[in-house]
Amino acid sequence: MTKPLSAELRQHMLESMLEVRYVEERIQELFLENVIRGTTHLCIGQEGVSVGMAANVDAKRGDTVTCTYRGHGHALALGLSLKSMMAEMMGKSAGCCKGKGGSMHLTDMEHGLIGTFAIVGAGLPVTNGAALTAQLKKTGAVSISIFGDGTANIGAWHEAVNLAAVWKLPSVFICENNLYGEYSAYHDTAPVENVADRASAYNIPGIIVDGQDAEAVYWTVKEAVDRARALEGPTLIEAKTYRYKGHSRSDPAAYRPEGELDKWLARDPIDILSARMIDDKQLTQSKLEQMRQAAQDAVQEATEWAFNQPDPSLDALFEDIWV
């Protein structure tokens, strides 16, 4: 049984999940309208991991997060504003990276987001660098790296986890196992049943959590963060979750077995938390509908605002670069 969080934190997490859900749906529409260029990777269905993680991050203390190209939800959950993100998605100068990062390269140092990384596994060594900084400066800060199940099959993953274990870095590694590495099923690419099973090879804790339960994710991440702050080394967390959409853009995900999506839709993270709050008399159905509408309105307002922002000037090409 998951230990209940306070009504205030539950409401914040529910509001955050609704915001992420509706902004992702709007991003897909804008991509199809050619307003957003390049590519997009949506985290619809995985919102419970984003908010459960983010609620444990103390950016003022120096905590940092790196994540994958499927990082819109993490960025918003950490505190990146809707307007700043939507502007970045559209390549506008008002975006968090001045319109030069786009969907796969979101950064918000104020809220601890070192960046979302387009290259699979690229965030893990960066997380260790931030963790080593915290260790040497004795700040008590923790660095979190979020990655997909496919990442656990590449060399950078093993090197990063090994180094963090050897040096007892205050790193927390969170795998969002959504069952697919791009278009390949996890069980077709890995020889172990769970990503968390690999933790034993590096003599660190490996914990599996229900990624659809935001509260369960919160407590699991909290335990790992507390352990890291106590200088006891890294933890590997595997959150079992699911992406409702395909890998990217217009991928129809025809490779999924029949009925699999319906099974996961029945365990929607928003529904799980809202139902729990209703059962505990912390939420009514009418209030939930008001929250849904407020999130949709906020997304639409941010979209219209971002659309009217100027594009970067050509001179911006020569800003923020080092030679």
Describe the structure concisely:
The chain is an alpha/beta fold and 323 residues long. It has helices spanning 7-32, 47-54, 72-78, 82-89, 123-137, 155-167, 214-229, 260-265, 269-279, 285-307, and strands at residues 64-68, 113-117, 143-148, 171-177, 180-181, 184-185, 206-210, 235-240. Strand 7 (206-210), helix 7 and strand 8 form a beta-alpha-beta unit.
CATH fold-level label: Rossmann fold
Structural category: alpha/beta
Bin the strand percentage: 5-15%
Number of strands: 8
Oligomer: single chain
* Text of the CATH class: Alpha Beta
Question: What does the radius of gyration come to?
Answer: 19 Å
- Low-confidence stretches are none
CATH architecture classification name:
3-Layer(aba) Sandwich
- The neighbouring-strand order within the major sheet is 2-1-3-4-8-7
**Overall average pLDDT:** 95
Q: Going by CATH, what is the homologous superfamily?
A: Thiamin diphosphate (ThDP)-binding fold, Pyr/PP domains
What letter string, H or E per element, gives the SSE order?
HHEHHEHEHEEEEHEHHH
Number of domains: 1
Shape: globular
Helical content (DSSP H or I, runs of 4+): 40-55%
* Number of helices, counting only DSSP H or I runs of 4 residues or more: 10
| N- and C-termini, Cα separation | 54 Å
